[in-house]
Amino acid sequence: MIDEHLKAARAVSALMGTRIQIVIPSILAEGETFDARISITGADALPVCAMGCKLHFEGCLGIEGLPQTLELDPNSSTAVISHLTAMGSSPVALVRARIEQQSAQGRVAGVSSNPAWIFKEPPYRLFWGDLHVHTNYSNCHAWRCLDPEWCYDYAQNISLLDFVAAADHLRGIAADTQRWPRLQALAKRYNIPGRFVTFPGFESSHAQGYGGDNNAYYLDDDAPYFWLEREDMHGAAPAVHLRELWEQLDRNRKPYFTIPHHTGRARKYRAWDEDYYNPDREPLFEIYSSWGSSEMRHTRLPISGGNNDAPSYFVDALKAGTRFGVIASSDDHATLPGSVHHFRTEPYCNPSLNGYSHKGLAAVRAPELTRGALFGAMQKRSTYATTHARSLVDMTVGDGTMGQEMPSGQRLDKTRKITVRFTLEGSASAKVTLMRNGVEFDTRSLRGSEIMTSVNNVVFEDAQDINKVALCGTKFHPEPFLVYYARIEDRNGEHQWTSPLWIDLI
After folding, report:
1. Is 79 in contact with 95 (CB distance < 8 Å)?
2. How many CA atoms lie less than 13 Å away from 124 in the CB half-sphere?
3. Which residues of the chain does CATH 3.20.20.140 include?
4. Are 506 and 495 spatial neighbours (Cβ–Cβ below 8 Å)?
5. Nearest to residue 116, comparing CAs of 79, 80, 87, 78?
6. Closest to 20 measured CA to CA, from 38, 43, 35, 47
7. What is the pLDDT of residue 267?
8. Is it true that domain 396-504 has CATH number 3.30.300?
9. Rounded distance, CA 170 to CA 425, Å?
10. Contact at 8 Å (CB) between 86 and 62?
């Protein structure tokens, strides 16, 4: 009897870390034909074969053309279901499947795809990516980082992302003259408009007081990386100012932007009482990665290694008058972009407590899946951030939506209705917090399965006179304004952050 229980326990244990991911496009037009993509990974986030797994599709929404069952190829870790159609009978599309696996001995498990919103005429498309991946060209965590080509293959075929960037440390890129040309060539080869998008990029680290950690991204494949042949350029925290990075990239005359990250870390942070910030060069803020959140000093996602006490967080940046949209990404040092996994520790050592299993994703709203469209959308802050779930989120004030600036006018002076619209992936509870001027304004809680199967609207009303609550005389925007953004948390620990919306007083 003990042997039978042990055998059953081992069979279940083998499945515990297995993840079947089903991905569909997040925005669909009524009547549109599309594919559902499937990948299977193990506890280490590496691809594994299906092992005789069968999917029974039950309780699906808004989709026509799914088979009753799909037997996955036991020799493959991926699959595609083609010729599906979005139906207008539901505003949300969702694939659900019951999993049958012989080794599970009668135990039943289920899996769902990400949700999709169905429109008669989509106002935008929504694409998912990871813009902060490290490879073995970074010269850090060398035993677990992998080749840059793996980064692109994994992102496209295993994590099923729409876009990715290998953003290696400059000190690693500069260590070998062949590295940047190969990174350029790979970004060019894997960039397939309409199917998968890559961005050439790198991480530029600067000492505390010099700009902290930033990533740079290019529109063109032939753009050069940043380097100065000086002694102070070397090391993990060069005493080279962020302004010098911008000045050299400006001289290159290649379109680019930079994104700060880890501004709230205990060391090498960037504070918003310092005298540099450039909205034309840095439209976005990486609010979360596997190392934690820089939204504010105290959160449920503190930064690994400790937070600082300076005015260095996203809320401080807003209070100082900056105008950042938000993204999240992995900052992954195992070259597993868009994955869910705990950090792989060194062989034979205890598991690491650093990092979160949720790695972070960037959501970009753009008209099409091309590098130019995504690049332009990010410059316009048409983005939001999630810890990993591909939840659908929007925030509007009147005719304005997140990422935008709008004038106040008589219609908004006395009362403003802020609507947060969302459909969660994988959770039946939500805590929605509206932030005004970098401070919590109001919170609502919702429960019920409809959170995953319908479009949920939470409406906040701000009836305070805009002239009395506006921020005035801020460091980087002295004219009076209001700024709102929303954060959604679910019981699984997932977070979503909208980009802010600014109302300028007229």
Report:
1. no
2. 15
3. 133-388
4. no
5. 87
6. 38
7. 85
8. no
9. 36
10. yes
And the tokens for 375?
């690049």
Element holding 466 (H helix, E strand)? helix 466-469
CATH no., domain 133-388: 3.20.20.140
- Residue 75 region, left (φ>0) first, then alpha (ψ -120 to 50), else beta? alpha
Over residues 59-115, the pLDDT tens digits come to: 999 999 999 999 999 999 999 999 999 998 899 999 999 998 765 555 568 999 999
Residue 51: burial class (beta carbons within 10 Å; 0-12, 13-18, 19+): middle
Phi, psi of 226 (to 5 degrees): -95, 130
Q: Assign domain 2-119 to its CATH superfamily.
A: Immunoglobulins (2.60.40.10)
Please name which of 438, 405, 406, 432 lies closest in space to residue 419, comparing C-alpha atoms: 432
Question: Using CA atoms, how far apart are residues 95 and 97, in angstroms rounded to an integer?
Answer: 7
**Side-by-side strand order, sheet with 53-57:** 69-71, 53-57, 96-101, 109-112
Beta strands (DSSP E) in 348-489 are 361-366, 383-386, 392-397, 400-401, 405-407, 416-423, 429-436, 439-447, 456-462, 481-489
* Strand partners for 96: 112
The residues facing 47 across adjacent strands are 41
Measured at the CA of 288, the angle between CA 287 and CA 294, to 5 degrees, comes to: 55
> What residues contact 431, with CB distance under 8 A and at least 6 apart?
443, 444, 445, 488, 489, 490
Nearest to 166 by CA among 235, 240, 107, 217: 217
Encoded tokens for 16: 């515990």
Those residues with Cβ within 8 angstroms of residue 139's Cβ, 6 or more apart along the chain or in another chain = 169, 171, 172, 175
State pLDDT tens for residues 175-232: 999 999 999 999 999 999 999 999 999 999 999 999 999 999 999 999 999 999 898 8
Q: What is the DSSP letter of 348?
A: T
SS3 of 293-308: ECCCCCCCCCCCCCEC
Residues of the chain with CATH 2.60.40.10: 2-119
| Contacting residues for 358 by C-beta, under 8 A, at least 6 apart | 290, 340, 387, 388, 493, 494
| Residue range 327-332: mean pLDDT, rounded | 96
